[in-house]
């Protein structure tokens, strides 16, 4: 969602540096929204409406000063003109008052109450992970070259085939980008495809495949991949990724709720559409945008997709269901509805830093791997057809 808004909003912003700054301000406002609003409310006699333009501009000004370390006079110079013909004096007074008091933000962003109660005891670690944008993770086309690429890119190794670089690295200028030696993929997002093992030329369906991080992984692991997605626009990114990496997959644009395969598969990866709350470090808009209604709607779609996919396996074939969501309704609750025999994940199938749960599922949280910059929240489970 933030990416879509970004695309629409950036139309009138010339220059890469200005766009990066606008994106950084939006990201910081979304991460620290509750705390920024508390500061604004502490300095106004009458509470500003939630959607008042003065509040919006003050949030941006405070985020620039408190998070992006822009000096107050520069913030005033760029922020107040946004309120020309409006409550400019009010905003000036509020900002100057807070700057004089040298207010600060807490170490960890405060989550909206409903979100904190939804995430329960996991909430503090997730909130801490939201405080900073995440580092850059790369999945390698050839895991045997892990050490070599780690050295070339000055990266740390998270697991065979997966590297981490500091955030802000210019992706298209990094060694190996042009020749397609790697693609950008959060470490947690790389785990579900690992659960299908090597392909040895057998057929895999990547259901809900675009923009294709997991298609690339499956193809690189030797699967003969059919990549299906509803969105032609997102599939065009999958095509670009295949071209850049020199990997291959058959691409199908279709609605998985209507499509039926002509032949069954040895493996299916259903990376279902979800609320994506597990990506809150990168997309902090999900903290404010997702609530029970969005969770219910998507859980309904996930159940239908899982049911359909469970009929498309050859005997002995394996199905992995995955979502980048932190919500049990999309993960733990969802999988109990699948009628196939469970195929619990074994510890030796995953990197030691992310062991499976007692039930043999995968559950990651943004608060895991905290020292190295966290990871997306993912859930995955696996079944094997009789
Ligand atoms: C979580 S994303 C997939 C990410 C992808 N697996 C990857 O690793 O890059 C979910 C995808 O489901 C697709 N989708 C949603 N509803 C669908 C449907 N009814 N049939 C097929 N694809 C659908 C969306 O277009 C979106 O690309």
Distance between the termini: 40 Å
CATH class (first level) name of the largest domain: Alpha Beta
CATH topology of the largest domain: Rossmann fold
- Integer-rounded radius of gyration: 23 Å
Say how many strands there are: 11
Structural class: alpha/beta
Describe this structure in words.
The chain is built from 15 helices and 11 strands. The protein is of the alpha/beta class. The structure holds S-adenosylmethionine (SAM). S-adenosylmethionine is lined by residues 208-214, 229-231, 234, 255-257, 271, 273.
Draw up the topology in text.
Elements (H helix, E strand, L loop, with lengths): L1 H8 L6 H16 L1 H10 L10 H14 L5 H8 L8 H13 L12 H7 L3 H8 L5 E5 L5 H8 L2 E4 L2 E4 L16 E3 L6 H4 L8 E5 L5 H8 L3 E6 L2 H14 L4 E4 L11 E7 L13 H5 L2 H18 L3 E11 L8 H4 L26 E3 L13 E7 L2
Parallel strand pairs: 5-6, 5-8, 6-7, 8-9
Antiparallel strand pairs: 1-3, 1-4, 2-3, 9-11, 10-11
In a nutshell, what does this entry contain?
This protein has 386 residues and is α/β, with parallel strands linked by helices.
Short key terms for the protein model shown above:
386 residues, alpha/beta, Rossmann fold, seven-stranded mixed β-sheet, binds S-adenosylmethionine, EC 2.1.1.176, S-adenosyl-L-methionine, RNA binding, RsmB/NOL1/NOP2-like_CS, RNA-binding
């Amino acid at each position: 969602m933030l990416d879509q808004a970004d695309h629409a909003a950036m139309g009138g912003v010339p220059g890469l540096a200005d766009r990066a700054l606008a994106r950084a301000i939006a990201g910081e406002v979304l991460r620290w929204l509750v705390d920024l609003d508390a500061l604004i409310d502490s300095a106004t006699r009458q509470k500003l409406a939630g959607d008042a333009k003065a509040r919006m501009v003050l949030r941006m000004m405070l985020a620039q000063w408190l998070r992006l370390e822009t000096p107050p006079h520069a913030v005033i110079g760029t922020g107040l003109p946004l309120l020309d013909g409006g409550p400019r004096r009010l905003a000036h007074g509020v900002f100057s008052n807070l700057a004089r008091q040298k207010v600060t933000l807490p170490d960890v962003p405060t989550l909206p109450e409903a979100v904190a109660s939804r995430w329960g005891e996991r909430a503090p670690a997730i909130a801490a992970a939201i405080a900073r944008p995440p580092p850059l993770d790369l999945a390698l086309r050839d895991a045997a070259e892990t050490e070599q690429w780690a050295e070339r890119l000055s990266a740390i190794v998270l697991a065979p085939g997966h590297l981490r670089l500091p955030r802000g690295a210019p992706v298209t200028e990094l060694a190996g980008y042009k020749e397609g030696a790697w693609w950008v993929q959060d470490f947690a997002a790389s785990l579900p495809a690992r659960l299908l093992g090597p392909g040895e030329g057998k057929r895999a369906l990547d259901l809900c495949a675009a923009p294709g991080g997991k298609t690339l992984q499956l193809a690189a692991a030797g699967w003969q991949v059919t990549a299906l997605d509803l969105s032609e626009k997102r599939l065009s990114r999958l095509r670009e990724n295949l071209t850049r990496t020199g990997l291959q997959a058959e691409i199908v644009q279709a609605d998985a709720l209507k499509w039926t395969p002509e032949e069954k598969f040895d493996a299916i990866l259903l990376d279902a559409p979800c609320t994506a709350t597990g990506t809150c470090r990168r997309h902090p808009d999900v903290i404010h945008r997702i609530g029970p209604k969005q969770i219910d709607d998507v859980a309904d779609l996930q159940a239908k997709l899982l049911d359909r996919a469970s009929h498309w396996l050859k005997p002995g074939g394996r199905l992995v269901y995955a979502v980048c969501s932190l919500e049990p309704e999309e993960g733990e609750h969802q999988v109990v509805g699948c009628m196939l025999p469970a195929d619990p994940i074994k510890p030796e199938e995953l990197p030691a830093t992310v062991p499976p749960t007692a039930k043999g599922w995968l559950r990651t949280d943004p608060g895991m791997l905290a020292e190295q910059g966290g990871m997306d929240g993912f859930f995955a489970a696996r079944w094997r057809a009789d």
